[in-house]
Design a protein that fits this description.
Layout lengths: L2 H22 L7 E5 L6 H17 L3 E5 L6 H8 L7 E6 L1 H9 L10 E17 L7 H10 L4 E4 L5 H13 L4 E4 L3 H9 L5 E5 H9 L3 E6 L25 E9 L4 H15 L2 H10 L10 H22 L4
Parallel strand pairs: 1-2, 1-3, 5-6, 5-7
Antiparallel strand pairs: 3-9, 4-7, 4-8, 4-9
Amino acid sequence: MKFPKLFAALAAFAAATCLAGAAQGAFPDKPIRFIIPFPPGGSTDTLGRMVARGMSDKLGQPVIVENLAGAGGALGVQNVARSNPEGYTLLFTVSGPITLIPLVNKAVRYKMEDLEPIGIVAHTPLLLVVPSGSPWKSLNDLVVAGKATKKDNFASPGIGSVTHVASETVNLQAGTQFQHIPYKGTPDILIAMAAGDVQWYTIAGIDGKGPVADGRLRPLATLSLERSPNFPSIPTMQEQGVAGFDISAWFGVFAPREIPAQNREVLNSAVKAVMNDPAFVNRMKEFGADVKPDDADIGKVKTFLGQERASYEKTVKALNLSQ
């Protein structure tokens, strides 16, 4: 007579044990490394830390930022691509190290397909800017000067960066002959521009909004196909007679390629929560960036990345930038 009760007790114990085990093994059950492949203090670092905090709140685990800079961002990307694919090591980066650097630098030991997108959290336009004291008041002034002499130059934060390729595209499409001078990053470039060592720069809107607003920089054009809602007074290149431009920058979260699907979905849900937070959206607008709902759809993000890389492949080939 006691056996049914014993069996019931054992069954209940087994069920409770299974549930406890499942709960204990739920992803994530430990802190997550959040690799930013650039030094502290820049726009990628600032945005990445905001996203890390938001994801941590959603996941209930610490998301620990680690700056792993080097090789224009390639060092940090490679580290994530080669990490354990469970999803405890993530990447937050601007677009260049994903879609451009593998095309420009054949020595890097990863390709875009080695990473799985979790979501693109923000887009920002590229602005062609000159120092406030520059004699060039319009894009036409810059083009005329660039056709007349080779002594003037433009800056970028490194060979293969989005701004480098965008600026070389200006030379190609406008028929100018400006010389490229690479710097370590935007802060150094702004100092060089103030000193008169650099004539112009294609700056990400998220970095340029402050210097444009306080008068240090004069914007001549945006490189997007349409005017940016965050910079509505700045005309496009096409409006000013230089066609063939639709270049911007984005910031996104990535995992190693072989991350389990269920873990990827958990992380994607956390990224969506960040992107749907009105405070985050408003903060991005203040920075000069936009949050697009479709960028939380992994399938659509993969399509977008493929299209962007195909476009960059043509540009890199036309400019003969591959090393």
